[in-house]
């Protein structure tokens, strides 16, 4: 059984007494006894302020929906939203930390560069540190493990809420390790303390933790979903459904006009490690194709340790674009407040995938060459990340 940073602080809470602190957390921030973090901590010292990431403090809002300011109904503590209706709301103003001397961060990440909680945590921590606050990250393990690194780095000029840091798509780091990296680069390392996880090793995926899965966001209901997310999130940049609006987000893929058995067979021919595709139909209740019957597949994780989701997601995008060009189209609406770059470029971290699929010939060769090039980025990142690692790599 692991002990998260929250568990360790609760076991020796003396350092929290007398502090005026803000807590940036959400519904998945629970103790070993499954008590919400803000309630467990309030028994020691009541927080002065709660900060909420995307989806709101309780995870009730869908993606790209502003969360409103409110009072916590259990403690009466004000909740300040760090996800509103504009880009400016993603970073707190220094005034938010007036009268506060400590920021606690307890957010469960899912190990993919696009997942926005770590960006929210780092941006809030930077402002807090420069406002004179200490910053404590109550660390949590990476549910995809800490060894596998996958995908390209984000290129300069493609910074966004879904690409806040220069990392591979699947980075294999914990929130605390990313905080050390960014604090060291940003000049606020002296203000940062990471309360580490006890009993976790980098090879361990979530099922080995001995803890139940608590959904960190509305469309992340299981560890299998998190396993698929680094690749299947790419479908958000298209007009095809990634399963939002159903009970199986990021498992269901399709759209009107797609023939399920044909798609399942084509995916089978790709032979993605650890995955199987089952032909099916589904009807999203909201978001893309709401109320329409979609043909597609349900992706089943058969071996989470073997899955390389990003490489599969790239190949899946190419397959869908080639065989179903009419229902497939790149998203044109703004994505996470960005209006001047396509969503696919923000997610990939460059124009590379879109450029390859626009070629008149040689698409397969270019695509596989690009995927093969990931290994150099991955090896370089494994070397560069050594100074930030809090949990040693095993031989």
Detailed description of the structure:
It is a single chain. This protein is α/β, with parallel strands linked by helices. It is built from 10 helices and 12 strands. α3 packs across α4 (175-186), α5 packs across α7 and α6 packs across α7.
Task: Write the topology of this structure.
Elements: H1 5-11, E1 21-25, H2 37-42, E2 49-52, E3 70-71, E4 78-81, E5 102-106, H3 117-130, E6 134-138, E7 150-153, E8 168-170, H4 175-186, E9 192-195, H5 223-232, E10 252-255, H6 260-270, E11 275-282, E12 294-301, H7 309-323, H8 343-348, H9 352-357, H10 363-384
Parallel strand pairs: 1-2, 1-5, 2-4, 5-6, 6-9
Antiparallel strand pairs: 3-4, 7-8, 10-12, 11-12
Primary descriptors:
28% helix, alpha/beta, seven-stranded mixed β-sheet, single chain, three-stranded antiparallel β-sheet, 395 residues
Order of helices and strands: HEHEEEEHEEEHEHEHEEHHHH
Order of adjacent strands in the largest pleated sheet: 3-4-2-1-5-6-9
Given helix and strand content, the structural type is: alpha/beta
Major beta-sheet overview: 7 strands, mixed
Low-confidence stretches: none
Can you give the helix content as a percent range? 25-40%
Brief overview:
28% of the residues lie in helices and 14% in strands. By secondary structure, it is an alpha/beta fold.
